[in-house]
Specification:
Blueprint lengths: L9 E5 L4 H15 L6 E5 L8 H4 L4 E4 L14 H13 L4 E4 L1 H9 L4 E3 L5 E9 L1 H5 L9 E8 L1 E3 L6 E7 L2 E8 L4 E4 L7 H10 L1 H4 L4 H10 L4 H4 L1 H9 L1
Amino acid sequence: MGKPRSELRVFLVQIRDLPVVAEQERQCFLRHCHLEPQQLRIQNVADHPELCWATVEDADVLMIGGAGVHSVTVDYPFTEALTEVVLRWIDDGRPFFGSCWGHQFLGKILGGAVITDKERAEVGTFDLELTPAGKADPLLDGLPEQFAVQLGHNDQIEPAPAELVVLASTPSCLCQLVRLADRPVYGSQFHSEMGEPEMRQRARLYQDRYLGADEDAYQRFLGRLRPSPQADGLLDRFLRLYS
């Protein structure tokens, strides 16, 4: 606790099949965590599935990002090794943050279920609402009861395992932000590493998958995007609190 930000070492697990998206995600985490490039180490398990404890153990914080075309409902060559590493990390009481796919993965390995429900998919900017537990959580201290977040998902945790405390929800997704009991372990269904500008970039990169090839559809999507200043600061706040 209290390590100077310049000395902080963050390990990011990526699940990205496209190099251009992996690089854009790296830049997102650097920006929203307020890190220099040498402070962020990465393994993309879509390319290098055998993640081992020795690779991550000297990091101060472990994070998992989004996935694009990979679903937590499917087992991949990296699933078993990643599960072992994350559970050991959590058991050691060390800081962990999962964003989007990483959030769903946290729910699954703790005994919850992850479902695919395209009728409740959320892509774009949405307003979430804090639960009573969220209003009392130090990560969210001083934030309004409702604030905007950037979302892009077809899957979601449902139901949440008993150990996960729900801190925020949207009408379509109960588990928008969760915490493991009183540990420094959080997951956000929304993209905590992306603000409006990054969401614009990501939507273009995944346009065919989420919006279709029609340029008018992309422009209509851009018209629905809004800034998300409170959510934009959550990763920085997490690192200040728990590292």
